[in-house]
Specification:
This protein is an alpha+beta fold. The chain has helices spanning 8-16, 23-28, 33-41, 64-72, 80-87, 144-153, 155-158, 160-171, 178-187, 191-201; strands at 20-22, 45-49, 52-55, 77-78, 97-102, 115-120, 129-134, 137-142. α5 (80-87) runs antiparallel to α6. It is elongated and about 65 Å long. The mean pLDDT is 89.
Length: 202
């Protein structure tokens, strides 16, 4: 009878969770910290952020920053320039991941990637959340309409030029729906600001 490979049970647990586990998750699933150290020493897992491990046999990450944020901050939502880049609505290259948090939430501890947090109250926080896959991680991102509305709301922070570019690029998309855009503008309380720019494009 063949001997099981070292750490086979632990490796199977990682696989069952998309190849990623936080230290706290691993312990709850019966993986002892010494097993994590042993798996790391054996080259079976790689640390990709503080307290976050990934199977070394997995394909290279295509969106490493977003995957790490999705796993380290599961209650956060990708927003503003990061969401624009995700939806192809900007020529900007994000140098940090923009993450929305519910008002009252504590600031997460994240050593990598660089992140900028925005706290939103309801209903703005929960409106327009989409769920996508980021290298096996469950990623929450605001839909294009909510993202553009947020950019107008925070235009003094990210620049009005970024918001206007996003609106123009979104106008060229087949799924452009002005009524939906105005609905989210209402939720974000920027209808009066956005409407003249939107009407100029129609």
């Amino acid at each position: 009878m063949a001997m099981p490979a070292p750490y086979q049970r632990q490796t199977n647990i990682f696989r069952a969770h998309g190849g990623f586990l936080r230290t706290s998750q691993a312990m709850k699933l019966g993986i002892h910290p010494r097993d994590l150290y042993g798996m790391r020493a054996a080259g079976l897992i790689d640390p990709i952020s503080r307290g976050l491990y990934r199977l070394a046999s997995q394909p290279p990450l295509s969106k490493p920053d977003l995957a790490i944020v999705a796993l380290r901050i599961p209650h956060g939502v990708i927003c503003l320039i990061s969401a624009l880049a995700f939806h192809g609505l900007t020529t900007q290259i994000p140098h940090e991941v923009h993450v929305a948090l519910r008002k009252g939430s504590e600031k997460p501890r994240l050593d990598f990637p660089p992140a900028r947090f925005t706290w939103l109250s309801e209903p703005a926080f929960s409106a327009g959340i989409e769920t996508h896959d980021a290298d096996g991680a469950r990623l929450q991102v605001y839909c294009p309409e909510k993202t553009v509305a947020d950019c107008f709301r925070f235009r003094n922070r990210i620049g009005l030029d970024v918001a206007l570019e996003a609106l123009k690029l979104f106008r060229e998309k087949r799924r452009f729906r002005p009524d939906e855009l105005l609905r989210y503008a209402g939720i974000c309380r920027v209808s009066g600001v956005m409407k003249p720019y939107l009407e100029a494009l129609l």
